[in-house]
Amino acid sequence: MFDLPLPIHPTAYARGVLQHFPSGDTDPSHPFALTLSRRAPADLMSGRATPLILARFATLADAMQGAIDHAEGIAPGAAPQLMAILDRDERLVLAGAASDHAVAWCHPVTSAAEARGVVTEASQLRAQAGRASVWGESDLAAQLRHRADLLDARLVDPLWRAFAARALQVAA
């Protein structure tokens, strides 16, 4: 889901933002991993396009707060970064776009039918992005790919859909 090229910066480290997660660490026993997609061409070509784990957290609420803490370190006006929270089995729990000191969480799909619709729409957007690239419209292509990735971010694992939706309600 997060391995397609986007105009999103691969990590905050590339822009010199110091990473600090006071409430998270890399303890593998913690069930929630806050991840950032890798978008650098070198990562894509080398097969290292798997998400970069920024920190691990004991609770979903802590992971969501960790994402907000990360967003506070993003320079104003920088491109949004797609972040995802994965569970111990690497299932998508929640995803969103971090920028301008905030995280815009993507609301999870509620059913398999809605998931199929999201996949179809994201596929159509990527096809349009491909045509835009051929026509030399790289900015439009980047916007279309970003919209497609935001749709993909709604494809929360069925096990987590209701829980993630409720977590977003509580957070709001």
Description:
- Helix 3 (112-134) runs antiparallel to helix 4.
- The longest helix has 23 residues, at 112-134.
- The protein has 5 helices and 5 strands, in the order βαβαβββααα.
- It has a domain at 12-107 and 156-171.
- It has 172 residues and is an alpha+beta fold.
- It has a 5-stranded antiparallel sheet with strand order 2-1-3-4-5.
Termini separation comes to 26 Å
Strand content: 15-25%
- Count of helical regions: 5
Helix content: 25-40%
Question: What number is the mean pLDDT?
Answer: 82
| Helix-and-strand structural type | alpha+beta
Order of helices and strands: EHEHEEEHHH
Quick recap:
The protein is an alpha+beta fold and 172 residues long. It is built from five helices and five strands.
Write the layout of secondary structure elements.
Elements: E1 32-36, H1 41-46, E2 52-57, H2 60-72, E3 81-86, E4 92-99, E5 102-105, H3 112-134, H4 138-152, H5 161-171
Antiparallel strand pairs: 1-2, 1-3, 3-4, 4-5
Key traits:
172 residues, alpha+beta, 5-stranded antiparallel β-sheet
